[in-house]
Amino acid sequence: MMKTSGAKKSELNARQVADVHPGVCDPVYGCPPPVEVVCIVTEKVYDECKNIQVNEDEFIYEAHPECPVQDVVCLSAELLAEPCCEVPTPGRIRVTFTYRVKIRLFFDDYPPVDLEKDVTVIKLFNVPRAGEEGLHVQCYVPFIECLDAFVRAEELVYDHLKTTIIACVGKYILIKLKARVQLLIPAYGFCPEPPDCDEVVGLCPDFRPEWPPFPPQTR
């Protein structure tokens, strides 16, 4: 069998790479074979877990007995800072973060009243590989949302109506154990040059007047 020269082999690889584009592989034929094996430096995830939970955050509002709270709505829930994650003991990870939840109260004869509250969450999770040498822990709260708010109880205390309000806040906690490593992976060479962006030149409509500007003269 005749060996393929380096020039022909490079030309073949170039054609193969030119035909490969990022995206889903063909459902029938799959992806073409890689043209090389490369060594890359990247972060590898060795372990991960998630925690999805809804907090019931309590607000106390002293309403006038003749003007009780008629309705409550959630305004927002936002993270105040990036979560802190640490390994207190091997195999366990503690996640700490603070968020601010805002609600709005509605009355019949008074303007709405906004309330806000800062809530600190401290969670402890079992992650068996936490604390292993070379692995560092990262935690995220990619989603936090005030889902609902409602009046749970009303109690007349002296001259005011003690109103207990609950805000339901959904939290999504994500924990990953990572290490920076060198990996051998199959590849298709360098990525092709991307297409030109579709630039928005202006927001005004096109101006295309008809020619000639004067209508034909008739006698």
List the SSEs and their pairings.
Layout (H helix, E strand, L loop, with lengths): L5 H13 L17 E28 L7 E9 L4 E3 L5 E15 L6 E14 L9 E22 L2 E28 L32
Antiparallel strand pairs: 1-7, 2-4, 3-4, 4-5, 6-7
What can be said about this structure in brief?
The chain has one helix and seven strands, in the order αβββββββ. By secondary structure, it is mostly beta strands.
Polypeptide structure, described:
It is a single chain. It contains 1 helix and 7 strands; from the N terminus they run H-E-E-E-E-E-E-E. With 219 residues, it is mainly β. The relative contact order is 0.25.
Order of helix and strand elements from N to C terminus: HEEEEEEE
SS strand fraction: over 45%
Shape: flat
Whole-number radius of gyration?
31 Å
Structural class: mainly beta
Average pLDDT works out at 86
Contiguous low-pLDDT stretches (5 residues minimum) are 1-5, 8-12
Q: What does the main sheet amount to?
A: 4 strands, antiparallel
Number of DSSP helical runs: 1
Helix fraction, binned, reads: under 10%
The number of strands is: 7
Distance between the termini: 88 Å
What features would you highlight for this structure?
219 residues, 54% strand, 4-stranded antiparallel beta sheet, mainly beta, 3-stranded antiparallel beta sheet
